[in-house]
Design a protein that fits this description.
6-stranded mixed beta sheet, alpha+beta, about 35% helix
Length: about 170
C-alpha cells in the first residue's frame, strides 16, 4: 500500500530572518538611494544597471526560497516559490538528524542566507553536499546515491521516520 504524501514546513531560524532582512534592506536601499541621488543625464546607464542588478538578485533569491518539503513515495520534493526540486530517495543509504550539519560548512555555489541556505556546500564532516536549509538547528542529512543532501524540516525526527518508511522495501 502506498503511503500518502506527507508535508513538512521549512521554518525560518533567527539567522535566516536577520540575514534576509538585512539583505533585503540593502538590495532595496541601494536602488532607492540611487534613484533619489543619481544625475540621470550623466549616469543613466550606470544607475539603471545598478538598480536592475539589485532587483534581479532580490527576485532570483526569492524564487529559490525553500517553502517546505514533501515526502511522496520514493521522492523528496523541496517546495520552492514557483516549482519543486525533486530528489530521488531510491537507494537511500542513510537519513539522520544532525543539528550541526551546517556547522563549519563553506558555500561553493548557491545562496548563503538570503531567504534560504541553498546550493552546494562543503564541510569536513560531510564533504560535498547540497543544502536546502532554512533553520540550522533542524538539519537532517540524507545520504543518497546522487550524494549527500541537507534539509531542515519542521519536525526532523518525524521526517526521518517518514523517509525511512517510504524507502523501506518490505
Amino acid at each position: 500500500m502506498d503511503m500518502p504524501d506527507i508535508d513538512f514546513a521549512a521554518p525560518w531560524g533567527t539567522m535566516l530572518k536577520v540575514m534576509s532582512a538585512i539583505g533585503t534592506l540593502v538590495l532595496v536601499g541601494i536602488p532607492a538611494f540611487m534613484l533619489a541621488t543619481i544625475d540621470f543625464e550623466a549616469d543613466m546607464i550606470q544607475g539603471i544597471g545598478a538598480v536592475m542588478m539589485c532587483l534581479v538578485i532580490l527576485i532570483l533569491t526569492l524564487l529559490f526560497t525553500v517553502r517546505g518539503f514533501t515526502v511522496s513515495g520514493s521522492t523528496l520534493l523541496v517546495r520552492r516559490l514557483l516549482w519543486n526540486t525533486r530528489l530521488d530517495l531510491t537507494g537511500l543509504r542513510s537519513v539522520t538528524v544532525d543539528r550541526n550539519a551546517m556547522k563549519g560548512s563553506i558555500r561553493t555555489i548557491g545562496n548563503g542566507g538570503l531567504f534560504s541556505f541553498s546550493g552546494t556546500f562543503r564541510s569536513r564532516s560531510l564533504g560535498k553536499f547540497r543544502a536546502f536549509v532554512t533553520e540550522m538547528s533542524s538539519c537532517v542529512v540524507l545520504d543518497l546515491k546522487s550524494g549527500r543532501v541537507v534539509v531542515s524540516p519542521d519536525n526532523p525526527e518525524y521526517f526521518v521516520s517518514v523517509v525511512r518508511r517510504s524507502t523501506d522495501d518490505g
